[in-house]
Amino acid sequence: NSQTDALIPATQVFVDAVKKGDVNAAKAQFPIARTYYERIEPVAESFPDDLDPRIDLREADLEPGQKWTGFHALEKQLWVTGLNPPGGPDSAALADQLLADVKELDAGVKAPSWTIDSTQIAGGAQGLLDEVGASKISGEEDIFSHTDLWDFNANVQGSQTAVASVRPILDERNPDLGKRVDEQFANVEALLAKYRKGDGFVLYDTVTEPQRQELSRAIDALSKEVSQVQGVIAPQ
Predict the structure, then answer these.
(1) How far from 186 is each of 33, 155, 190, CA to CA, in Å?
(2) What is the pTM of this model?
(3) Distance (Å, whole) CA 106 – CA 233
């Protein structure tokens, strides 16, 4: 709830810049707005009405005939084709759709009918870390903007919050695992901190292959510990 609260105004700033044609302002806001979304990505599969693909689908995952909307469709225009490319989708319409979808997401997760249980939360945290370590590490997420490190950081923060939300059960049943999880989160955070620049991060195309492998190993080690949480906290 706190992240969707923040996601709406952050997306509004992004959308306003796109609609004004202020490419530099839109580029600067892109990774900031996405941060709030990427933090809640551990539970994205549970979002109502296909909102996750509507907001966050990558071009590489498009199926034939599927309409491409969301952050990455605008990312391509901002970094590659230019806004309103000839024969392409209208930038303002994409921007308006993104804002509408984000508002729908906010309403959806606050509706009494939307529920999520602790096992799903823990499983989502591990699944997302696996995805970061195995595939996102290649730079496929923000393939046009290279703002991947903002996403990685937000994914790790979201996974950490997800684990924290089930921590009372974990500490009661397996406190040692909780300590190991904390250590691995700290390792990943320390590694990401090396790539900080100002309020954000360096662009991912400046991160070398050995550095990417080091990040991948640290995230894998974290995921290995987090993968055990689900079993420990499952209803007995």
Answers:
(1) 25, 14, 6
(2) 0.95
(3) 28
